[in-house]
Design the sequence.
């Protein structure tokens, strides 16, 4: 589903004469990629920290337990791995890159691009309770980073790495 949604977004962008990613960085390739990846990971970590702080709110307003347990990450590794791939592609390629490109192509204002992308991310994480609001930090960072560097694969890679941290932690504690 994630791959098909991303493909559909790529085709829509192509139909409108746009691309989801900038052409290659040329001579700066590896260095620029590492820098962008580092900035994206820092943005993700700030959003993660904000979400953790909001879990200090009263129990009835936020998700109880970890996101991993809410998602059913028990037993084998297949479901968590598939879930990480799915969310990385859906959130970064579809909810950020495609929204940025398609709203820009439609001629919408910058504030609308941010509002739509962040709104989709927060709604998709509604099961967090009020802590989903913390994802506005992460959503804004992702939109800014995409608009600045236009590297959706780097966004998805950083998302994957950050999501692997609790999976690896779970595996180590099992």
Sequence:
């Amino acid at each position: 589903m994630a791959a098909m949604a991303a493909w559909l977004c790529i085709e829509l962008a192509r139909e409108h004469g746009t691309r989801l990613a900038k052409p290659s960085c040329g001579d700066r390739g590896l260095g620029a990629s590492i820098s962008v990846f580092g900035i994206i990971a820092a943005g993700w970590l700030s959003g993660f920290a904000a979400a953790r702080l909001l879990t200090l709110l009263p129990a009835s307003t936020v998700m109880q337990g970890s996101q991993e347990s809410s998602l059913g990450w028990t037993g084998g590794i297949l479901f968590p791995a598939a879930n990480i791939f799915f969310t990385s592609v859906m959130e970064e390629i579809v909810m950020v890159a495609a929204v940025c490109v398609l709203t820009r192509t439609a001629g919408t204002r910058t504030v609308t691009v941010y509002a739509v992308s962040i709104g989709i991310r927060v709604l998709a994480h509604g099961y967090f309770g009020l802590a989903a609001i913390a994802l506005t930090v992460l959503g804004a960072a992702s939109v800014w980073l995409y608009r600045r560097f236009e590297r959706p694969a780097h966004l998805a890679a950083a998302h994957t790495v950050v999501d692997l941290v609790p999976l690896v932690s779970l595996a180590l504690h099992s």
